[in-house]
Design brief:
Elements lengths: L1 H18 L9 E7 L18 H9 L1 E3 L2 E2 L5 H10 L27 H7 L3 E7 L26 E5 L11 E2 L2 E2 L9 E3 L18 E2 L8 E3 L2 E3 L2 E3 L11 H15 L5 E6 L20 H23 L6 E7 L9 E2 L3 H4 L17 H4 L3 E4 L8 E3 L3 E2 L3 H8 L16 H4 L11 E5 L6 E5 L2 E5 L9 E5 L15 H17 L5
Helix pairs in contact: 5-6
The structure holds calcium ion (CA).
């Protein structure tokens, strides 16, 4: 009874959204946990055997586990761009993996997910990793840093500017570096070398660099990073404490906005390199430090779920957990744990890893919980993607999406709610690695991969995921008509500038 009422409620909400600004009857808090580099096989409820993820498994038990969810990019920056804007990153030049002092990649004024939710009366917060550029570039970290998250719809932001393995190794809160000391100005360079201030610390292991990884420009906290940084010594984070810091901030945000509605994007640093677990997690998994930071991530999820329980917000909060791209098998840092990775494949049976157009690059864990609205303990094989967040949040909050906003964002709310659908909310999806080419096009059970070059028939791979999820059997040579059809569609989607109907 309850479920059918909710089903009708969702339908009327959707109908209303097209014609009226009338407030929908249900307006849940939204806690969106975007983890980093967590692969399809890294979580217990997705088949991991050598790590334990009880809190993520709880989400699967109390919500729906999606088996065909994608990050649209197989590396960080393009994924985050698409998630926030509803637009494929490859449509905008310069949206590949951003330097730590890159200019803001999203233009202020863009209707982003937090901007849309703020229109609907939500308090919007970012805690965690940004990696979408700041300021006009190259970013000056010594003054007021803008534009950034606050100019793109977030009411508050506590964040890592880029990633843990690149400088600057400081947190930014709203427009300022946390703990900034004017007497020790911060200089950051991704070009000419500046200074060299190795500040070694005993991490209990030695994080050496393997080969020409690029992680050798600055040594901060004893860990080599990408890019050069001098100054800001008092402001530098402690790598072992990043998860604790971000978790405390997330809990604080939820506590302060308990009267809701709120939208919190908790973009964890875990499990991105350099994968430095807090000492209390070290040695707790059977997969070295990489497994230990999965435990640390699961602990973070447990802390925020417990906060929702404690504040009696669980029933009225939509919780989503996913990852920004597929898992990486080998750490750049030689921390002695790589040999243990073989015990458990980060991407399960999928082919490819982070940075690949194969499924392992972008098919990611995706758990959704909203008690009474999203089926508990269910599995969904619906095709969904992070780029759908904008249109889905518009439908959820009863707001029409302007034609120019979110050109690649589909409303997949019916898939989240487990509604019976005559047609799937999304049956095609364009996937990228780090730049505008090569791309992959998913349609139905088929996926076409560009190999680069002149785009002759031989420049494609074609797989039928329905019976070949591991992508072992390239069908391009046997299916020339399908290659032609899908490559023509991909060309059209490139040229149209949009894919949303
Ligand atoms: Ca990532």
């Amino acid at each position: 009874m309850k479920r059918s009422l909710l089903f009708c409620g969702a339908l009327s909400l959707l109908a209303l959204s097209a014609f009226s600004a009338e407030a929908p009857r249900t307006r849940p808090n939204i806690l969106y946990i975007l983890s980093d580099d967590v692969g399809y096989g890294d979580v217990g409820c997705y088949g991991a055997t050598h790590v334990r993820t009880p809190h993520l498994d709880r989400l699967a038990k109390e919500g729906t586990r999606f088996t065909d969810a994608h990050s649209t990019g197989s590396v960080c920056t393009p994924t985050r761009f698409a998630l926030l804007t509803g637009r494929y990153a490859w449509r905008q030049p310069g949206t590949g993996i951003a330097a730590g002092n890159a200019a803001a990649l999203i233009k202020p004024g863009t209707l982003t997910v937090p901007a849309l939710l703020r229109q609907a009366g939500y308090s919007t917060g970012l805690v965690g990793k940004w990696h979408l550029g700041l300021g006009d570039g190259p970013t000056d970290f010594n003054g007021e840093i803008r534009p950034g998250p606050l100019e793109l719809g977030f009411d508050s932001a506590f964040f890592i500017p880029a990633t843990g393995d690149r400088v600057p190794c400081v947190f930014v809160e709203n427009h300022r570096v946390v703990g900034y000391d004017a007497a020790d100005p911060i200089r950051v360079s991704y070009g000419p070398r500046i200074g060299d201030e190795p500040t070694g610390r005993d991490l209990g292991t030695t994080l050496k660099i393997k080969g020409d990884s690029g992680h050798s420009d600055s040594v901060i906290n004893g860990i080599p990073r990408i890019g050069f940084m001098t100054g800001g010594k008092a402001a530098r984070w402690v790598d072992e404490d990043i998860a604790d810091t971000l978790t405390a901030r997330a809990v604080k945000f939820i506590e302060e906005h308990r009267d809701g509605p709120f939208f919190l994007l908790l973009a964890t640093h875990d499990i991105h390199e350099p994968m430095v677990p807090h000492p209390r997690f070290r040695g707790t998994s059977e997969c070295g430090w990489r497994g230990d930071v999965i435990h640390q991530l699961d602990w973070t999820v447990g802390q925020v779920l417990a906060t929702l329980d404690r504040l009696k917000l669980t029933e009225n909060t939509l919780v989503i957990f996913t990852s920004d791209n597929g898992g990486a098998i080998k750490s750049t840092y030689d921390d002695g744990t790589n040999a243990l990775h073989g015990r458990q494949s980060p991407n399960g049976a999928l082919r490819g890893i982070k940075g690949s157009l194969y499924e392992g690059g972008h098919r990611v864990p995706f758990l959704a919980r909203w008690p009474g609205h999203i089926a508990a303990g269910a599995t969904s094989a619906q095709l969904i993607a992070h780029v759908d967040t904008l249109a889905t949040c518009a439908a959820l909050t009863g707001q029409p999406l302007p034609a120019e906003a979110g050109p690649d964002s589909f409303n997949v709310l019916p898939a989240l709610l487990g509604e019976k659908m005559a047609t799937p909310p999304r049956d095609q999806l364009v996937l990228q690695n780090n730049g505008p080419a090569p791309l992959a096009l998913r349609q139905g059970g088929w996926v076409l991969l560009e190999k680069g070059g002149r785009r002759t028939a031989a420049d494609y791979e074609l797989y039928n995921l329905t019976d070949d999820l591991a992508q072992k059997n390239d069908r391009a040579a046997q299916e020339p008509a399908r290659v032609q059809e899908l490559s023509a569609l991909l060309k059209k989607l490139r040229e149209d500038g949009r894919s949303r109907p």
